[in-house]
Amino acid sequence: MGHVLHSSRTDATGVLPLLLFSFSAAIGLVDCIWAQEAGFAVTGRAYGELALAAGLFFGAGYIYARWRPEPRLAAMLTGTGFLIGFTAAASVLNAMLVTVAGHRIDAVLARADLALGLHWLQMMQAVAGHPGLLWVLQFAYGLLLPEIALAVIVLGTLGRIASLYRFVLAVAIGALISIFIWTLVPSFGAMSVYALDLTTIAKLHVVTDGAYGQALVRMLHDGPGLIAPDEIKGMIGFPSYHAVLALLLVWHFRYVRWLRWPVLALNVIVIAATPIEGGHHWLDVFAAIPVAVLAIVAARRTYALAARLGDSWGLSDSRAERASSAI
Fold it and tell me: Measured between alpha carbons, how far is 76 from 277 in angstroms, rounded to an integer?
């Protein structure tokens, strides 16, 4: 079984880790050039520290693939480095894209929700009277990032290395699709359209309230201001990237027998919480489905292409992965 889990293909000069590094580095380079040319205010030191952290994880992954062969650990380190580097670079790119974004479509999305019989204001007023339900929704919604870290650890530990790489690729591709759509037709969610009464606001205790939504609308008009890791706002309304991530987690945990059902249940709650905790239109959530599907398909094809181009760190075939999922 140990041979099945580790696989014999562990060449550190393989294509996929290099692809992941190059992918995040290329976006970072675009950020640097654009910020310099356009004069954006970016906290270079903070992003430099994130780049360093990503580089350290990539370097450690290289070491555990080439000199101390541990394919599972190498994949976890490489995947973590990629997620750190890509997330930082993509968030800066998203902030700068606000200056070239198209016309806001929140009014259109709000009308579409109403046409479907989905009333955001009424929903928010209704859930405000149920503090226990709000606590569950808020708790689940806040677990999304820890779930991503858990996916990297679990998939790597179980030797599901191909699934791990496809997962981080899907996370990145889903983000790029969402950013592209948002740039063409920006939206900030129902919270930017409707005004909740003070009593309801006091009961909800949500971060993404009307004031948050209006701050995003002003950003579309005035520009991103200071771009810093602790100042970055979740700008993408349509499609909901939170919902995209929830769907990707469900998909990639489906063969992990002891976690598939808890992850499914948790992310059903995350998706249900998205219009409330994230202030989204319901249409934002529905739009996440095709985005997640496209991300999964594109990630699989990218992975297959990398496998054909050359050996990567700890790749395993589907039969090996299915065997490891029983652990």
Answer: 30
SS (H, E, C) the chain: CHHHHHCCCCCCCCHHHHHHHHHHHHHHHHHHHHHHHHCCCECHHHHHHHHHHHHHHHHHHHHHHHCCCCHHHHHHHHHHHHHHHHHHHHHHHHHHHCCCCCCCCHHHHHHHHHHCCCCHHHHHHHHCCCHHHHHHHHHHHCCHHHHHHHHHHHHHHCCCHHHHHHHHHHHHHHHHHHHHHHHHCCCCCHHHCCCCCHHHHHHHCCCCCHHHHHHHHHHHHHCCCCECCCCCCCCCCCCCHHHHHHHHHHHHCCCCCCCHHHHHHHHHHHHHHHHHHCCCCHHHHHHHHHHHHHHHHHHHHHHHHHHHHCCCCCCCCHHHHHHHCCC
Residues 246 and 44: their CA atoms lie apart, in Å, by 31
Q: List the chain pLDDT tens, one digit each, 327 residues.
A: 333 343 334 333 367 888 899 999 999 999 999 999 998 888 888 999 999 999 999 999 989 988 888 889 999 999 999 999 999 999 999 999 999 989 999 999 999 999 999 999 999 999 988 989 999 999 999 999 999 999 999 999 999 999 999 999 999 999 999 999 999 999 988 988 888 888 888 788 766 555 666 777 777 777 888 888 877 667 788 999 999 999 999 999 998 999 999 999 999 999 999 999 999 999 999 999 999 999 999 999 999 888 877 644 444 434 333 434 333
Q: What is the pTM of this model?
A: 0.88
Asked if omega into 239 is within 30° of 0 (cis), the reply is yes
